[in-house]
Design goal:
Blueprint (H helix, E strand, L loop, with lengths): L3 E9 L3 E4 H18 L1 H5 L11 H8 L3 E4 L3 H4 L18 H17 L8 E5 L10 H9 L4 E5 L5 H14 L5 E9 L17 E10 L9 E10 L5 E2 L21 E2 L1 H22 L7 E6 L4 H12 L12 H4 L5 H9 L9 E8 L3 E9 L1
Parallel strand pairs: 4-5, 4-6, 11-12
Antiparallel strand pairs: 1-7, 1-8, 2-3, 6-7, 8-13, 9-10, 12-13
This protein binds coenzyme A.
The site of coenzyme A has 21 residues, from α3 and α8.
Length: 373
């Protein structure tokens, strides 16, 4: 069995930063227009008036201040409220592949590797823009990588599930180096007309290069000490979009073909699940939580992360122990914890430990214990 290290990470950040204020202005315009257009029905009780959103609520409830979007113009147009991403021909690189190629290039450069060193590509994310051919195979071709590629989806936990898959492949010798890529265009499955959730997501793509420790030469190496994955079925985060939709001629519930969640239930159920998961994972590896230098947690909600860190550490985590990036990026699904890792690991000292953890729909939880080499 080969020891495995993360030797490079990359981050593609979309060009359009959108503040809570800008998002709320578009939402509130939509609400005002809706209520004006339907004033008579609202007055006679046939229709419920819509309620405005608030930037203060968003920051207080979630910790999010802004997000980056692949397209802001379509989202901020109160008549549309859907990103404008024009279709590309089959001969052009698809949008998700383009994001993944950009992030992968950074990870390869950090690792001091080229495409010739890699023989497996995993694209792991919440939403893939098509069923086939796999986006990962398109990325493989764009980067001129020999070997094989496949897509996988474990919602927000896709990155850690991808990292475990890559680690196993390298440890057992079926690949020398693996790229795990997380191109998330969450804005395309978010209902920007839903007051409860219109602020939740942002777009981004992360990349992680894993390889055999014995031949890795990069300046910053993180040894994969152990991975632990878990899933428990829940309908509290659900998206019914899929290829069977066209068989439902009435298309009776178009809004359930987007992200839908019971936010309060998710909060209550997922925090203990993740806290116990990390505690058990550390115990199984004889590691005291006090000896973990950093937690790169999934970035969905600030209070959730504070609660999970408190459960694991038995006290509040310092900002430097559990870095927050959701204030700038919002929830970028599987990319979130990897953005935290990408931006906050190079300062760690040799021997220090960290835990990368993702959690979300499924429910799914993943944790990866890493040691700075
Ligand atoms: N603007 C202003 N007020 C709003 C609002 C908005 N956009 N959305 C909801 N509110 C109001 C509600 O009307 C409610 O008011 P009331 O108390 O007078 O009835 C109040 O705020 C609380 O609403 P609630 O939906 O219970 O908010 P919350 O505190 O649960 O926060 C989330 C909402 C989504 C931020 C929170 O539940 C969450 O983050 N959950 C976990 C989400 C998650 O991690 N999902 C994983 C996806 S991968």
């Amino acid at each position: 069995m080969h020891k495995v290290v993360i030797s490079g990470t990359g981050l593609f950040t979309p060009p359009n930063a959108v503040s809570n204020e800008a998002l709320v202005a578009a939402f509130n315009q939509y609400v005002t227009d809706f209520n004006t257009r339907n004033a008579e029905q609202i007055a006679c009780g046939e229709l419920a008036a819509l309620t405005h959103s608030s930037a203060e609520f968003i920051e207080k409830a979630s910790g999010i201040k802004q997000r980056y979007l692949m397209d802001a113009s379509g989202v901020l147009d109160s008549e549309r409220m859907v990103p404008l991403l024009p279709p590309r021909s089959n001969d052009e690189l698809s949008v998700q592949a383009e994001m993944a190629v950009a992030a992968a290039g950074q990870a390869l450069a950090k690792a001091g590797r080229t495409a010739a060193d890699v023989d497996m590509v995993i694209v792991a994310c919440s939403n893939l823009q098509r069923p086939y051919p796999a986006v990962s195979i398109e990325v493989q071709q764009a980067l001129a990588i020999n070997g094989f590629a496949f897509d996988m989806n474990v919602a927000c936990s896709s990155a850690t599930f991808g990292i475990q898959t890559a680690t196993n492949a390298i440890a057992t010798g079926s690949a020398r180096a693996v790229l795990v890529l997380n191109p998330e265009i969450c804005s395309a499955h978010l209902n920007f007309r839903d007051r409860d959730s219109h602020f939740i997501f942002g777009d981004a793509c992360t990349a992680v290069l894993l390889e055999r420790a014995e031949s890795a030469t990069a300046a910053n190496l993180l040894e994969v000490v152990d991975c632990k994955l878990a899933t428990v079925f829940s309908n509290n985060i659900r998206n019914n979009f899929g290829f069977l939709n066209r068989c439902d001629e009435g298309n009776s519930e178009p809004l359930d073909k987007l992200f839908v969640q019971q936010g309060r239930k998710v909060f209550k159920e997922v925090c203990p699940l993740v806290g116990e998961h990390i505690v058990a994972h550390l115990a199984a590896n004889d590691i005291a939580a006090a000896n973990v230098r950093r937690f790169w947690l999934h970035q969905a909600n600030l209070s959730m992360n504070q609660l999970i860190a408190r459960r694991v550490l038995g006290r509040d985590a310092a900002a430097d122990e559990a870095p927050v990036i959701l204030d700038r990026y919002a929830n970028t699904s599987s990319a979130g914890s990897v953005i935290a890792l990408h931006l906050h690991h190079e300062d760690m000292a040799t021997g220090e430990l960290g835990v990368l953890s993702s959690f979300g729909a499924g429910y799914s939880v993943g944790s990866v214990i890493l040691r700075k080499c």
